[in-house]
Each structure stands twice: as structure tokens, then as C-alpha cells.
TrEMBL record:
One of its GO terms (biological process) is actin filament organization. Residues 6-206 form a coiled coil. Residues 313-627 form the Dilute domain. This is Dilute domain-containing protein. Keywords: Coiled coil. InterPro entries: Dilute_dom, MyosinXI_CBD, Vascular_dev_regulator. It comes from the Eukaryota. It comes from Aegilops tauschii subsp. strangulata.
Length: 685
């Protein structure tokens, strides 16, 4: 135990000794540091003392300089000459007079300033009025130019329509006259043909040299008919020769058979063309192939210059049956593209013929007319088979000298084709209207869950309002889907953009009428929350117009001006601070006073409980509405839907379609037929 204690004491002694040595070392270090610090402080003190001495010296020098300057200034003042100041004598009367005059001038200056401010205000108003007048003058000038262009186009169209109507009147008179005599002419012609055939057999069996047979395919003289009757009446039997003293003209029986074969061949060509029109629904370089092929065939056969032909009626019948049996909007869009393209080609190719209005000479005999028509048909058939071809390639030239003078069948065909373009357009537009109208009834009024006041903002109401907004936005998206489907259908069938623009413009005008009239007729629709609901839906339509571009949307967004301004009024804050001029000129310039008055009186804020228009504004509008009802008693604040067809022949002529019918490749049905090789020749050329 003692040894252990001694060992412990020894260890403690060693630790204490080490501690003492460490403390001693630290003490020495601190002493050295203190010495160094005192030395540094001494050096710094000496530096500061020297700097203080320098500053004191500079201060003493500055004091000395100031004293010297003061002494120099005193000497300069003493040596300067005395200055004499003249004090003017003040006339109090003149001073008072001047002060009174000054006050009068100040008052006049104030009046001048007020007058100048008034003049500036009047000048600003006059400048504003002049700017408005200049804008109105520019708009009037532009409208005058547009009206002048429209008048020029209408004059040309009127002249064409007058000539076409004249043609139609003359042809209707001729048709009525022909209908009255048709039966008698046919009977007489058949009997005379039978007589001529029997006479031809008699003359052919007679080898007498005095009988001369002259073949004339164009004219049979009336004397020949008379002589042939005499031959049969005198009882000459077959095989009984008789000398004939005068020349006998024999009808060309061989040419008749040839003419009949040409007519049959032409009928076969018509059948093949009609079959191709009904079955070939291709597009060649964004153009309906059937329209170009029909146009080239009619032009090659000179059908536009024919007095009588049934090919146009057969084409119209094919189009009518196809349109009536169409099962989808895609088929209607195809026929709209085909008929509008064909009408464009006709409009830029045909012109009314003045010669077709002349009444043909009815003094000719029925037999002569029969053979003349047969010869003319033979010529047209031979030209249709490749004997002459006047086709020049591109259409759409403005030179009227190169246009074809259309006869009555071609003019009637163009009118029927125009009617079918309007009919198909109206059918597609009305179908889209009906489809949108069913959805539009769900978009007029916001759901009830969305019209909860903000003060009742529980979690359940917020969740239900969010669901209702999502469900209501689906209806607007369904309208956008309908518009996209129609646009895609028309684009896939290459309907001209002008027709697409007019379709959507009229559909948007229809939506404007439906939505705006619903606001004016239903008070529950004239609320603040319903205005927000309609504003969100209109934003969907605006985004669709911006995505679709102006090429297809056109002025569709501008057609919604009434509902846009009405919705802007519903969602406007602080309506009570607005004046009547601000509402009519800035907020709702398109709406009438009666329409604004009705919306303003039916408005109710179901979200914030704010007030509507001020009583002064409502009273002024009530007075103006009463005055308007007295001056125009039959006026209505509701809008009317425009169901007219805004497509004219002038619009069709200005389509500027890039169409060259010679580039269209014919279908296999026509390529395999030798009668339609002219299509292949034009295609290779």
C-alpha cells in the first residue's frame, strides 16, 4: 500500500512539475509579447507625436496667413476711394397707380389664361373631331372604292345575265313552238323518209342513163320531194323504168348509217364519261380529277357550242343523285369541291352568245331541217373524235376574246351547276349549325354550382364549382371539335378556302345570334358569373380562330362582336361609375341603346353583390329607348340569323385556283378506251 501510495505521489509530483514548467514557459512567452507590444506602442506614439507636431506647424502657418490676409484687406479698404450711392426719391402716387395697373393686368392675364385653356380644350376637341372625320373619310373612300368595284362587277354580271336571260327567253319560245309541232314533224319526217327510201329503191333498180344520182349530205331541195311524190302517185311499179326529164337528188343512205353510228358512238362516250364522274373520286395535285376530266371532254367535244345535247342534263342528274344519296359530310365536301371547281372552269371559259338568240328560219321543210341537224351532229361527232381540237390548256384568262360563246344548253348547265354549289354549301352549313346548336344550349348558362358566392367558399363548394367549370368547358371544347372536324373534312376534299371562310363566318354569326338573344331573353343569364363562364368559352373560340389562321377562319371572330361586347359589360367592375358615353362609345359601340338598356336592367351580381348601372344612366337610356320605339315601332332588340347563300359567280371567278386541266391523269376506265386518247395526248403534252 505504501509503495502504491508513493508511486501515486510520485506521478502526481511529476505532473505538477510538468505543469509548473509549462506555466513558466507560457509566462516567459507572455513577457516577451508584452515587451514587443510596449515597443510597438512606443514607436506608434512617437509617430503620432511627430504627426501632431507637423499639424501644429501647419496650423500656425495657416493662422499667420489669415492674419496677413486680414491686414492686406484692411489696407486695401483704407486706400480705396469713397463710393457715392444715389437714393432715388419715391413718388407714392405713381407707385399706387402702377400697382393698380399691375393688378388690372394680372386680372386680365388670368382671364386670358382661362380663355386660352378653354381654347386649348376646344382645339383638342376639334382636333379629335377632325381625326375622327378623317378616319371616317378614309373609311368612306375605301367603301366608295369597294362599291365602285362592286358596281363594275355587278354591271358585267348584269350584262352577262341579261344576255343569258335573253338566250333563255328565246330558247323557251323556240322550245314551246317546237313542242307544239314536234309530233306532226316527226310523223311527216318518218313518212317522207319512207317515201325517199322506196324512191331510192325504184331509181336504183332502173339502169336508165338519164337518171343522175347526186349525193348531197346537207340539203334536199323541195322540188325533189315534189317529184318523188309524183312518181309514186302516177302508179309506177318497181321494175317499170320511166325516163325522168329533170335531175333527181337521192338522199345519202350510206351517210345516214354512218351518222347513226357516230351518234351511237357519241352516246357510248357520254355513258363512259358519266360512269367515270360517278365512280372516279380521285384528287390529282389537290384538284378533283372528275371535274377536270369532264371539263376537258366537254371542251374537246365542243358541247358548249352545241345547240342541243343531253350530256349536261346527264351530268346534273348524276350530281343530284350522288348528293341526295350522300351518307356523310365527306361525300358532300367532295361534291362541293368538284362542282365549285367545274363551275370555276366554266366561269372563266364561257361567255353568253348573242348569235344563239336568233330565231332559226322555220320556212325550211322538215326533211331539210332533219338532214341539216344530222350533218351538224356528224360534224360535231367527228370533231369530238379528234378531227379538230381547239383546247388551249390553261383556263382562267381574263381575255374575253379567247372565251367560248356558250349556247343555251351550256348556259343552262352553268346555272344548274351554280344552284348545286349553293345547295351543297347550304346543306353543309346547316348541318354544322344543327350540330353546334344542340351543344350551344348547354353553353348559354353557367351551371348552378359555379354561381356560388365567394363568401360561401367552403371546400365542398369550391370542389363542386371546379367540377362544374370543368364539365362546362367540355361543351365549348365539343364545339371546337365540331369546327375542327368540318375544317378537316373540307381540307381533305380540297374545298376552296373562300368557301371555307364563308362557312365558318356564317356559323359564327349563328352562334353570335343564339348566345346574344339568350342573354336578352333570360334574366338568369345576365349575371356576373355567367359572364365569366361565357368569356371563358369565347376565349376557346378565339384560340381556335388564331390556330386556324385567317386563310380559313376569315372574319369569324368579328362575327361575335355582339356577344363579346355584352360579355364584356357583364364582367365589368364598378359599372355605377361609368357614364352613358363611355358605355356606348368605348365598351359597347356595336350594341343599340335598347339592347344595352335591357342587359343593364336585367344584370345582377351573384358573386360580389355589387351594384349595376347608375340610376341616371338607366333613366337616360329609358328615355332614349322610348323615343326609338316611337320613331321605329317595329324595331326589335333581338338579332336575326342570316340564312342566305353568300357565294356568287363573281366570287367563284375570283377563286384564283391553280388549275391546269391538261395535267390531270385520266382514270383506267378512260385510258383503256381509244375514244378518250385525247386526254392522254393533252396529259403528255
Amino acid at each position: 500500500m505504501e509503495a502504491r501510495d508513493n508511486g501515486a505521489l510520485k506521478e502526481a509530483k511529476d505532473k505538477l512539475e510538468k505543469r509548473v514548467e509549462e506555466l513558466t514557459w507560457r509566462l516567459d512567452v507572455e513577457k516577451h509579447l508584452r515587451v514587443d507590444l510596449e515597443v510597438a506602442k512606443g514607436q506608434e506614439i512617437t509617430k503620432l507625436q511627430s504627426a501632431l507636431q507637423e499639424m501644429q506647424e501647419k496650423l500656425e502657418q495657416a493662422h499667420a496667413a489669415i492674419i496677413n490676409e486680414k491686414e492686406a484687406a484692411k489696407l486695401a479698404i483704407e486706400q480705396a476711394p469713397p463710393k457715392i450711392v444715389e437714393v432715388p426719391v419715391v413718388d407714392n402716387a405713381k407707385v399706387e397707380l402702377l400697382t393698380s395697373q399691375n393688378e388690372e393686368l394680372e386680372t386680365e392675364l388670368g382671364t386670358f389664361r382661362t380663355k386660352a385653356e378653354d381654347l386649348e380644350k376646344k382645339l383638342f376637341e376639334i382636333q379629335k373631331q377632325s381625326d375622327e372625320l378623317s378616319r371616317e373619310a378614309q373609311e368612306r373612300d375605301s367603301k366608295i372604292n369597294e362599291l365602285q368595284e362592286m358596281i363594275a362587277r355587278l354591271e358585267t354580271n348584269l350584262s352577262n345575265m341579261e344576255s343569258e336571260n335573253h338566250v333563255l327567253r328565246q330558247q323557251s319560245l323556240l322550245a314551246s313552238a317546237d313542242d307544239d309541232n314536234k309530233t306532226k314533224q316527226i310523223e311527216s319526217l318518218e313518212s317522207k323518209i319512207a317515201i325517199l327510201e322506196s324512191e331510192n329503191q325504184v331509181l336504183c333498180s332502173n339502169p336508165a342513163p338519164a337518171v343522175q344520182a347526186v349525193v348531197n349530205p346537207e340539203v334536199i331541195q323541195p322540188s325533189v320531194m315534189k317529184n318523188s311524190h309524183q312518181v309514186l302517185e302516177n302508179g309506177h311499179q318497181l321494175g317499170e323504168p320511166k325516163m325522168v326529164s329533170e335531175e333527181v337528188v337521192v338522199p345519202p343512205i350510206k351517210n345516214l348509217s354512218k351518222q347513226q353510228s357516230l351518234t351511237d358512238r357519241q352516246q357510248e362516250n357520254h355513258d363512259i364519261l358519266i360512269k367515270s364522274l360517278a365512280e372516279d373520286r380521285r384528287y390529282d395535285n389537290r384538284r378533283p380529277a372528275a371535274a377536270c376530266i369532264v371539263y376537258k371532254s366537254l371542251l374537246h367535244w365542243h358541247s358548249f357550242e352545241a345547240e342541243k345535247t343531253n350530256i349536261f342534263d346527264r351530268i346534273i342528274h348524276t350530281i343530284r343523285s350522288s348528293v341526295e344519296n350522300a351518307e356523310s359530310s365527306g361525300e358532300l365536301a367532295y361534291w362541293l369541291s368538284t362542282t365549285s371547281t367545274l363551275l370555276y372552269l366554266l366561269q372563266n371559259t364561257l361567255k353568253a352568245s348573242s348569235s344563239s338568240t336568233k330565231v332559226p328560219n322555220r320556212s325550211r321543210t322538215a326533211t331539210g331541217n332533219l338532214f341539216n341537224r344530222m350533218v351538224q351532229n356528224a360534224r360535231s361527232s367527228s370533231s369530238g373524235l379528234g378531227i379538230s381540237n381547239g383546247y388551249s390548256g390553261m383556263v382562267g384568262r381574263a381575255d374575253t376574246t379567247s372565251m367560248i360563246e356558250a349556247k343555251y344548253p351550256a348556259v343552262r348547265f352553268k346555272q344548274q351547276l351554280t344552284a348545286y354549289v349553293e345547295k351543297i354549301y347550304g346543306t353543309m352549313r346547316d348541318s354544322l349549325k344543327r350540330e353546334i346548336s344542340a351543344i350551344l344550349t348547354l353553353c348559354i348558362q353557367a351551371p348552378r354550382a359555379g354561381r356560388v358566392r365567394a363568401s360561401r367558399g367552403s371546400l365542398k363548394s369550391i370542389h363542386s364549382s371546379a367540377l362544374s367549370r370543368q364539365a362546362s368547358s367540355v361543351h365549348w371544347q365539343n364545339i371546337v371539335k365540331c369546327l375542327n372536324h368540318t375544317l378537316e373534312t373540307m381540307n381533305n376534299n380540297y374545298v376552296p378556302p373562300m368557301i371555307i371562310r364563308k362557312t365558318f363566318s356564317q356559323v359564327f354569326a349563328f352562334m353570335n345570334v343564339q348566345l346574344f338573344n339568350s342573354l336578352l331573353l333570360r334574366r338568369e343569364c345576365c349575371s356576373f358569373s355567367n359572364g365569366e363562364f361565357l368569356k371563358a368559352g369565347l376565349q376557346e373560340l378565339e384560340q381556335w380562330c388564331s390556330r386556324t389562321t385567317e386563310e380559313y377562319a376569315g372574319t369569324s371572330w368579328d362575327e361575335l362582336q355582339h356577344i363579346r361586347q355584352a360579355v364584356g359589360f357583364l364582367v365589368l367592375h364598378q359599372k355605377s361609375h361609368k357614364t352613358l358615353e363611355e358605355i356606348t362609345d368605348e365598351l359597347c359601340p356595336v350594341l343599340s341603346i335598347s339592347q344595352i338598356y335591357r342587359i343593364g336592367t336585367m344584370f345582377w351580381d351573384d358573386k360580389y353583390g355589387a351594384q349595376g348601372l347608375s340610376q341616371e344612366v338607366i333613366g337616360n337610356m329609358r328615355t332614349m329607348t322610348t323615343d326609338d320605339s316611337i320613331t321605329t315601332p317595329n324595331s326589335s332588340f333581338l338579332l336575326d340569323d342570316d340564312s342566305s347563300i353568300p357565294i356568287s359567280l363573281d366570287d367563284i371567278a375570283r377563286l384564283m385556283l391553280d388549275i391546269n386541266p391538261t395535267d390531270v391523269e385520266p382514270p383506267p376506265l378512260l385510258r383503256q378506251n381509244s375514244q378518250f386518247h385525247f386526254l392522254l395526248q393533252q396529259h403528255t403534252d
